[in-house]
C-alpha cells in the first residue's frame, strides 16, 4: 500500500492504464511536458512520448472533436478540460455526439472516451473555474458521470472509466487533490461505476453526498456522534447512473435522510435523488428529507465563497432538524 494524495492516485491510474493498453491516449491543454495545471499528468510525457501524451490548443471544442474521432477509430482517449466551467465550449462533442453514438449505431459501435476535469470551490479560483456542472452531464442520457471523494476511489474509478466501452465524465474536486492522503494499492484495481459506498455506518439518519461534500458530511457525522446521533453517510461516487438500491436500503434502515451537494439547489443531482427516494421509500420516511446546498446564485468571487459554500455546520443543522422532526 502507498499513502497517496488524490492527484497522485489519478496520475498512477493514468500511468498504469497507458502501460497496459497502448490505445490509451492523454491530451489537453498543458498536459504534456508541463504535466497539467495540477500536475495530474506529470511524468507521462517523458515516459510515453508526444504521440500518446500531447498538448492541444486552447480550444475545448477541438479537444472534444479529437476525442470523438479517436474513439470512433478504436482508441481510448482521455481528454482533459482544464476546468469544468469551460465545458460549454465542448457540449456538442460530449452531449451531441459521444453520448449518442451507441444508440445511433444500434449498439454496434461504442465510444470509449473519458472526459477528465477539475471542478469545485473552496480554493479561491477565478470566475468560471469552480462551478459544479455535474447536473448538466447527469441529465444527458448516454453519459456516465463519476465524482470520487478520496484517493482510493479515484484510482479505481478512473481505471474503470478508461476501460469502460462508453463515454465517462470524470470530475475531480480541486479541494480534494492534496488535502489528505489515503492508503492506495500499488497494483491495478477497479472500483465499479454506478455503485455507491457506505462511507460510514449509522442508524438514525442517512446523509447522501458526493465529491468534497462527503468529507463535510463525515465531519458532521463525527460531531453528532458526540451528541448521541448515529449518522450513516452514503457516498454516491457515480452520479449517473445513481445507485438507488444502496440509498434506499439505508433510508429504510434509518427512516430519515439529508441530501448534500455543493451545487446550487436548482442544480446538481440532489433533486433527482430526493424525488426517487420519495417515490421508492415514502413509507419508510419518518420526516421530510433535508436538502443542504449552495444558494441559487451565480458562483461568487473568491472573497465570498466560504460564506456561499455549504459546510459541516449546515449539514449538522439539517440533520438535527430532520432527527428532531
Automatic annotation (TrEMBL):
<dbReference type="InterPro" id="IPR029061">
    <property type="entry name" value="THDP-binding"/>
</dbReference>
<dbReference type="Pfam" id="PF02779">
    <property type="entry name" value="Transket_pyr"/>
</dbReference>
<dbReference type="GO" id="GO:0016491">
    <property type="term" value="F:oxidoreductase activity"/>
</dbReference>
<dbReference type="Pfam" id="PF02780">
    <property type="entry name" value="Transketolase_C"/>
</dbReference>
<dbReference type="InterPro" id="IPR009014">
    <property type="entry name" value="Transketo_C/PFOR_II"/>
</dbReference>
<keyword id="KW-0786">Thiamine pyrophosphate</keyword>
<dbReference type="InterPro" id="IPR033248">
    <property type="entry name" value="Transketolase_C"/>
</dbReference>
<keyword id="KW-0560">Oxidoreductase</keyword>
<protein>
    <submittedName>
        <fullName>Pyruvate dehydrogenase E1 component beta subunit</fullName>
    </submittedName>
</protein>
<feature type="domain" description="Transketolase-like pyrimidine-binding">
    <location>
        <begin position="4"/>
        <end position="179"/>
    </location>
</feature>
<dbReference type="InterPro" id="IPR005475">
    <property type="entry name" value="Transketolase-like_Pyr-bd"/>
</dbReference>
<keyword id="KW-0670">Pyruvate</keyword>
Amino acid at each position: 500500500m502507498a499513502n497517496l494524495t488524490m492527484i497522485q492516485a489519478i496520475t498512477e491510474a493514468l500511468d498504469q492504464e497507458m502501460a497496459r493498453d497502448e490505445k490509451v491516449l492523454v491530451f489537453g491543454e498543458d498536459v504534456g511536458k508541463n504535466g497539467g495545471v495540477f500536475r495530474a499528468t506529470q511524468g507521462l510525457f517523458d515516459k510515453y512520448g508526444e504521440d500518446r501524451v500531447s498538448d492541444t490548443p486552447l480550444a475545448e471544442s477541438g479537444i472534444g472533436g479529437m476525442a470523438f474521432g479517436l474513439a470512433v477509430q478504436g482508441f481510448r482517449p482521455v481528454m482533459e478540460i482544464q476546468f469544468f466551467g469551460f465545458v460549454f465550449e465542448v457540449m456538442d462533442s460530449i452531449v451531441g455526439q459521444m453520448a449518442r453514438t451507441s444508440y445511433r449505431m444500434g449498439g454496434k459501435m461504442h465510444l470509449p472516451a473519458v472526459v477528465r476535469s477539475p471542478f469545485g470551490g473552496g480554493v479561491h479560483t477565478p470566475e468560471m473555474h469552480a462551478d459544479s456542472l455535474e447536473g448538466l452531464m447527469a441529465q444527458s442520457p448516454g453519459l456516465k458521470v463519476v465524482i470520487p471523494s478520496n484517493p482510493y476511489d479515484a484510482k479505481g474509478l478512473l481505471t474503470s472509466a478508461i476501460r469502460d466501452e462508453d463515454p465517462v465524465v470524470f470530475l475531480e474536486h480541486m479541494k480534494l487533490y492534496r488535502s489528505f492522503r489515503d492508503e492506495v494499492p500499488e497494483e491495478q484495481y477497479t472500483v465499479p461505476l454506478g455503485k455507491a459506498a457506505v462511507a460510514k455506518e449509522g442508524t438514525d439518519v442517512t446523509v447522501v453526498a458526493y465529491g468534497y461534500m462527503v468529507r463535510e458530511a463525515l465531519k458532521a457525522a463525527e460531531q453528532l456522534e458526540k451528541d448521541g446521533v448515529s449518522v450513516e453517510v452514503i457516498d454516491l461516487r457515480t452520479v449517473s447512473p445513481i445507485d438507488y438500491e444502496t440509498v434506499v436500503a439505508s433510508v429504510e434502515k434509518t427512516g430519515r435522510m439529508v441530501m448534500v451537494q455543493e451545487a446550487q439547489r436548482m442544480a446538481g443531482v440532489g433533486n433527482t435523488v430526493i424525488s426517487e427516494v420519495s417515490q421508492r421509500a415514502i413509507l419508510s420516511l419518518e420526516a421530510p428529507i433535508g436538502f443542504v446546498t449552495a444558494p441559487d446564485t451565480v458562483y461568487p468571487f473568491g472573497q465570498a465563497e466560504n460564506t456561499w459554500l455549504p459546510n459541516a455546520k449546515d449539514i449538522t443543522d439539517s440533520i438535527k432538524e430532520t432527527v428532531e422532526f
